[in-house]
Every structure is written in C-alpha cells, then in structure tokens.
Design a protein that fits this description.
Strand order of the largest sheet: 1-7-6-5-4-3-2
Distance between the termini: 45 Å
CATH superfamily: START domain
Number of domains: 1
Helix content: 25-40%
CATH architecture: 2-Layer Sandwich
CATH topology: Alpha-D-Glucose-1,6-Bisphosphate, Chain A, domain 4
Structural class: alpha+beta
Length: 192
C-alpha cells in the first residue's frame, strides 16, 4: 500500500521572498522549537549552471523518524536520513524540491515533491506552493490493514510538520517584508 496526498498553499508574498524563506526555514535558530523533528541540515553540493542560470543544490537532512513509537521500537532507530534535491530557475521563477529518505528504506519509503511558483492570479505578489507526498511501509505490505494504519499515522505526522513548516515560512517571509534590504540577504538566498 502507498499513502499519498497533495497539499496546496498560497503565500501572500512574492516568489523571491518565499524561496528565500525556504532556504532558511531549517537553519533559523528561532525555528528549532517549531520544527523539532529536524535534527540537522547540511548542504552537500551547490552548482550554478551558467548556461541555463539554474541553481542545483543537494542537502542532507536528518530527522526524527516519522510514525508511531512502536514502529520506531521495531526498527530500532528513531533517526532518518534524507536527501533533498533542489532546482531553482530564477528566470522562469520556479523552485522544485524533491526529498527522499536514504535510511530506513527497507522499512519505509517517503518521497516529497514541492514546487514554488508565482500565483497565476497575482504573479508579482503571491506564491503558490504545491506539495505531493507518498509514504510506503514495506515490511507490512502483507498485513495490508496494519500497513494502512501505519501509513495513515505517518501521513498525519507529515501533514502536521508541513503546517509547522508553512508557519515558519510565513514568519520568515513577513520578517523579510518588514526588514530593510541590507539585512535581508542570506547566504542561501537568491535575493540580492
């Protein structure tokens, strides 16, 4: 069984501000309490393709493993390592992130795809975020009803964490809106 869901959120902030907030949501010390499931984030690779103008970034993200406590007990691990691949096309104003777990794969497969683009109704003022997540519990596939319950619990946890992430992004975007331009720049920001 695979549990899949999609979410859509409109940020009432321009694309440049929202994508800047995306880079900072895990690293801002004020967000540690809200995003307590995030243990560590490290940038592994960053490449700017001069021909296309696209930025390619790969980050390692360590999180507290999702799911109910008894599943973490069975697995014997409560930490999960993920890789996030990001493509930013500043010319077309598109940011795409794909995050997959690289540990616990014999038990759990999670893939999250997120896309930020200008909102068609207000392209210079709003940003639309579309997120697709799929969760698959592997060893329980034979026990379909139990697998469905575990996948549902994992999905609920991911949805809760998504809400927290959006709150952080809104807070950072609002702070950036109020901050003078000289203080706004961040090393991972596309905003100059």
């Amino acid at each position: 069984m695979v549990k899949a869901y999609t979410q859509e959120h409109v940020y009432k902030h321009p694309w440049e501000r929202v994508t800047s907030a995306s880079w900072r949501k895990f690293t801002d010390p004020e967000n540690k309490r809200i995003l307590s499931h995030i243990v560590e984030v490290d940038t592994l690779n960053r490449k700017l393709d001069s021909a296309s103008g696209k930025l390619y970034t790969t980050r390692a993200i360590t999180v507290h493993a999702p799911g109910p406590w008894f599943l973490r007990k069975i697995i014997g691990q409560d930490i999960c390592h993920c890789v996030e691949s990001t493509i930013v096309d500043a010319q077309s104003r598109s940011m795409q992130l794909t995050t997959r777990n690289i540990s616990l794969q014999k038990f759990l497969e999670v893939e999250e795809k997120t896309r930020y683009e200008p909102h068609p109704d207000n392209p210079n003022g709003w940003t639309i975020c579309q997120q697709e997540t799929s969760i698959r519990i592997k060893p329980l596939a034979a026990l379909a009803s139990m697998a469905e319950k575990v996948e549902q619990r994992c999905a609920e946890k991911f949805l809760q964490n998504s809400v927290k992430g959006r709150e952080v992004m809104e807070r950072i975007s609002s702070m950036d809106e109020d901050a003078p331009k000289t203080k706004r720049r961040h090393p991972n920001s596309l905003v100059v």
